[in-house]
Amino acid sequence: MSTTPYQDALHFGANDSITLSSFYEGQNTLLLETCKKAIATMRHESYFIFAPPGSGKTHLITALFNSIENRAEKAFFMDLSIAVKLSPALLNINPYPVMFVDNVDAICAKSEFEDAFFALYNRWFDYGTGPLFITAVESADSIAFLRRDLNTRLGNGLTFPLLRLNEEDCARALELKAIMRGFTLAPKVAQYLVRHKNAYMPALVDILDRLDLASLQRQREITIPFIKEILGTDL
Fold first, then answer.
1. Does the chain have fewer CB atoms within 10 Å around its N or its C terminus?
2. 138: domain CATH number?
3. Domain containing 223 — which CATH number?
4. pTM of the predicted model as reported, rounded to 2 decimal places
5. For the chain, which ranges sit under pLDDT 70?
């Protein structure tokens, strides 16, 4: 694929260890299946996914990116919350077959980045390549871009709210993440953690990692008394 007159793409923010097997969809089965089908069929459509921080939208599109074979050649991933600290020239590329742009609202009110992303979006639209996945913390029409036509562009495709996991789903997701780390978390233990952290997954995952390390060091099973002993007032 020629990149003239644009530079080669640099991928920012894609964690190679994140997979779809570790994504617990909860009530987001339709969204997940729609995204997977879009990649499989290479449908030329934009998919705007929005949710509050900690809801799993970055996990989802990173896992989708990592699911693509030969992704270095076939897919582009950029977390704009990282790119915005560098240069808008990072967006000066030709579209890839599959495009992933995380945290598009990070460029809000930054005119050079807005212009660069607007131009990239238009190139993607004109090229007629495969799907474009975009995430933000709020819906496309709510982002206070300086370029209001950017709101229009982002709202032209399919829009999905990523539904936050309820307490039951959070507990199951925590059990899944424990299995991915090589140990078993009893359902009642997972439920205990969720109730004490208001079902906020990033905090729960951090706690899970602390408990995993402590259980290995002390050769103890992760139980509710053990959690109280290790975390104390942190819960």
1. N
2. 3.40.50.300
3. 1.10.8
4. 0.86
5. 1-14, 198-199, 233-235
